[in-house]
Amino acid sequence: MTGRWATIARTQARDLAHRWVTLALLFGLPATWYLAERASGRPWAIGAGALAMGWTSGAAALFAVLGSRRVDPRLVRAGYRPVDILVGRIVVLAGLALATAAAFLVLIVVFSRPHRLADLVLGLVLGGLVSVTLGWAIAALVPHELEATLVLIGLAGIAPTAPGPVGDFLPFHPLLRFTDVTVPPPAALPLVLEAVGYAAALTGFALLLWRRHVRVFH
């Protein structure tokens, strides 16, 4: 039984590997956002790159979850525990988010040479965590790829421009605050707690919706 989550993880990883063109586009197109801002000399280019990473991780999670909507109930009927499905999928998506964060970190370091490297790393890691749970929650709420993608695009688009009281409560706030070099360095602990809390809340919300399709807890 303990190895079943690993079977789910391998299956999910193979499915994503077969979609390597989609994954390449999910990385390459948002990366141009950062490169365009960097080429124009914008001071917020690093934040744009971080936000691009968040969108990429969230979109990958969104497509992975939506692509498995019809498979999950069949896996449960075949004897897999819902918790195995959950753990296996999260392991793969979290690993993909970390790989995406590492790739964007290299890109930003090479082209922007940031002075606050520790803040950048922390922001990307936390942003990846929040983005995976956000993509999963959107996929659980909006069962169609086009509409779900538009919701994610909308959240990413409004994040940098929302007024302070609104922007402070959006999912990408910790990511943008850690990577905003136009303001003084932030206090790390409140932003870490905010990101972890957001990820936990989004996970709980996604689980509640997922229970319509498979029973998550025995």
Descriptive account of the structure:
This protein is an all-alpha fold and 218 residues long. It has one domain. The protein has ten helices and no strands. It has helices at residues 4-18, 20-39, 45-67, 71-77, 82-112, 117-141, 145-158, 164-167, 173-179, 188-210. α3 runs antiparallel to α5 and α3 (45-67) runs parallel beside α6. It is globular. The mean pLDDT is 88.
Helix-strand blueprint:
Blueprint: H1 4-18, H2 20-39, H3 45-67, H4 71-77, H5 82-112, H6 117-141, H7 145-158, H8 164-167, H9 173-179, H10 188-210
Please, what is the average pLDDT?
A: 88
Q: How many distinct helices?
A: 10
The span between the termini is 14 Å
Percent strand: under 5%
Uncertain segments: none
Helix/sheet category = mainly alpha
Q: Give helix and strand order, one letter per element, not per position.
A: HHHHHHHHHH
Helix content: over 70%
The total count of strands amounts to 0
Q: What would the principal axes of the Cα set say about the shape?
A: globular
Rg result:
17 Å
Number of domains: 1
Main pleated-sheet profile: none
Concise description?
The protein is mostly helical and 218 residues long. The protein is 78% helix and 0% strand. The chain contains ten helices and no strands.
Q: Which tags fit this structure?
A:
single chain, mainly alpha
